Amino acid sequence: MSLPPEKASELKQIIHNHLLRMDIHGKIREVLAETVRDDQGPAHRSLSEADFLRALQRRGIIDDVMKDLHFTQVDQHFAAETRSPPKPATHFVDKNITKLEKTNIDPCRRYLYFQVLGGKAFLEHLQEPEPLPGQVCSTFTLYLHFRNQRFRSKPVPCACEPDLKEGFLLEIHRDGVGEGSKMADATTLLSMCDPVHLVLIRTDTSSETTLVSSYFLDWRTVLSLPSGKTCFAVELMGVGINQQRTAEKERLFLVYAKQWWREFLEIRPSHQSKMVKIFAQDENGVNRPVCSYVRVLRAGRLLESPRQAARFVSLLALEKAPVVGGGGGKQEQWCTLMAFLCRGKGDCEDHATLLCSLLLGFGLDAYVCVGTKAKGTPHTWVLTRGTDGSITFWESLTAHRYLHQAIDPDAPPLAPQPKPSSPYRTVGCVFNHHTFLANCQPSDAVELCVFDFQNQSRWKAMSEEALKSVCAPGSTTSLPPLPPICAPSLDPAAASNQLELEMRYLVSEHRKDLDLATVWDDHLSYLLSSALSAYELERCTGISCGNEEFQDAVRRAVPDGHTFKGFPIHFLHRNARRAFATCLRSPFCEEIVCCRGDHVRLAVRVRVFAYPENACAVWLMFACKYRSVL
C-alpha cells in the first residue's frame, strides 16, 4: 500500500530509532566477523549478500526486528484508518509494570519519550546501607501525569542515589472533536501548555506513604532543539518550600481579594474572627485560591453514584500535616489532587475538595464548607443543595450524610424547632470551582445558618469573573492539571484469601500460647460472607439489607444447645498483624478468639472491597460456636 510522504518519513524515522535502540549495527558487525572467520579456509570463496542475509536469519536477528516492529499490526492500523480514525486516550489505565513493555507506535501521532536516568543527592538517605537480597526496605516510587495519562515507576530502594531508571512513552494528541487522529504540527505542540507532573512518594516498611516532592516540568524546551532530544537535571524540592512565581493574573486577583476582604470586614467587626479562607498553601508552599482545589471530576465507570464516591473518599486515610513545635496550632497544607491520590492519605481539606469535585461530576450543586466542629476544632466538609432547597452535609472522612434544617431565632418560644443533627458548629465560608461565598449573617453557628446563597445580606460573594481568571482550567500555567481517577489493580478475591489465611494462622498461634486447640468450621466461615457484604452495602448506600437471610443461615448452622458469637470490624489497610492486634483490644473479640468450652468451633471471614486508586474497605468477622454448659 502507498503512504503519504509525511507518513512514510515518519514511519522511516520510527524504524530507524527502533534499530538504534536494538544496537542493530553492533549485532551486524558481530555476525559479519563470525561469518568471515568461518569462511576462511581451503575452500575460501567471496562472501555474497545472500550468504550474509542467511547468517543474519540463522542468528534470529531478522525475526527479532520484525517481531518487535509489529509490521502486521501497523499495516492493519493504516488499513483501518480510512474506516475509523484512531482517537486519543480518554481514560486512564494504570501502567503497573516493572519495565518498559513493547508497544505499537502509531506513525500518525506525536509521542514524547520521557526517560528518567536515576536520582542523586537524596542526602537524608546518605547513611542507609545497601539492602540485602530479600530484605524489606523503604522504597521510592515516581508517579507521572501528562494530558490524561498516568504512569508510575517500579519501586526502588531508598538510597542517596536511588536507581530510578524508567522510560515513559507519552502520547501527544490534538484537542477537539475529530482532531485526535491528526498529526500535531509545531504550532500545536508549542501551544500545549500542559506540564508533566512528577510526584515522588516514599513507602516505608510498614506500607506508610510519604509525599517527598511534587514538580511540574515544562517539556516544550525539547521542541527548539534540532535533534529533538535533550537531557537535563530536575531539582525535586521538598514539599513546603516556597516556589511561588506570581503572574500578572495572580497579582491582580490578590489586589481584588484584599479589597473584597476590607469590604467584608466593614459589614461587621466580628467578621475578623470568622473562618473565611480565600487562599491555601499546597505541598510546594505555593499559595493558591481555595477554589482552584475544586474541579468538576468524573470517574467514568469507576464510581457509579454520589454515595459510592463518598464511600471511596472516606477510605483514603486521614493524616494531618505535621506541626513543628508546640502551641497546639494546625499546620496549613492542602495537597494537589495528584499528590493526594498518589499518597493515598491526607487531611480533611484534601478529602473535602476531592469529594466536592466528584459530586460536581455527578451533577450535584456541591460546595466545600470551612468552619469548626466540636470544641472549636477547624474542619472542612461538603454541602449539597437540592432543587427543592434542601441542604445536605456530607462528611468526607466517614461518608455520613446529615440533613440540615435551620433553627428560626425569631420563632415563638413554644414553637417546635429542629434539633441539630450534624457535628458541625460554625461555618465561615463555602466555595466550589467557580463560587466563593463568605457568611455575613449575625451568627456563624451552623444551626442558625440559612444557606440561601442568592441573598446578599446573608452571603457576600466574590466576583465569578475574578475567580475564573485564576481558577478556571488553563487560566494560569501554575494551575495543576486535573488527573484522571485510576482503576484498582488489586484483586479483591486474592487479597481476601491471603488476609484470611494470615488471620487463621495468627488465631491458631495465639490460642496455642494459651494451650487451647483450634478447630475451624469452614461452613460457618463461608456463611459470614453475606453479613460482610451487607455491611459494605450499607456503608455505600445507607440502606441495610440481607440481615434476615444471614440470621436464618446461622440458626441452621448452629445446633440446639449451642451458642453463637460474632464480632465484625472494619479496616482501611491489609496488614494482618496490625489488624489482629487491634481486634484483641476489644473484649468482645478477645472472648471469641480465646473461647473455652465444649465442642468449640471457630470461624473467620475476610472480605476486601477494592475501590479506585487501590483504596480498599476490609471487613473482618470472627465467630465461634460452642455447646452451652450450665
Helix-strand layout with pairing:
Layout: H1 5-21, H2 24-39, H3 49-58, H4 61-69, H5 71-81, E1 110-116, E2 139-146, E3 149-152, E4 156-157, E5 166-172, H6 186-191, E6 196-203, E7 209-217, H7 248-267, E8 279-281, E9 287-289, H8 306-314, E10 317-318, H9 337-343, E11 345-346, H10 348-361, E12 365-373, E13 378-385, E14 391-394, E15 401-404, E16 424-431, E17 436-439, E18 459-461, H11 464-471, H12 492-513, H13 522-541, H14 547-557, E19 562-571, H15 576-584, H16 587-593, E20 598-610, E21 616-627
Parallel strand pairs: 10-11
Antiparallel strand pairs: 1-5, 2-3, 2-4, 2-6, 6-7, 8-9, 12-13, 12-16, 13-14, 14-15, 16-17, 17-18, 19-21, 20-21
Helix pairs in contact: 7-11, 8-10, 13-14
Notes on the protein architecture:
Helix 9 links the parallel strand 10 (317-318) and strand 11 (345-346). Helix content is 31%, strand content 21%. The radius of gyration is 31 Å and the shape is flat. The protein is α+β, with helices and mostly antiparallel strands and 630 residues long.
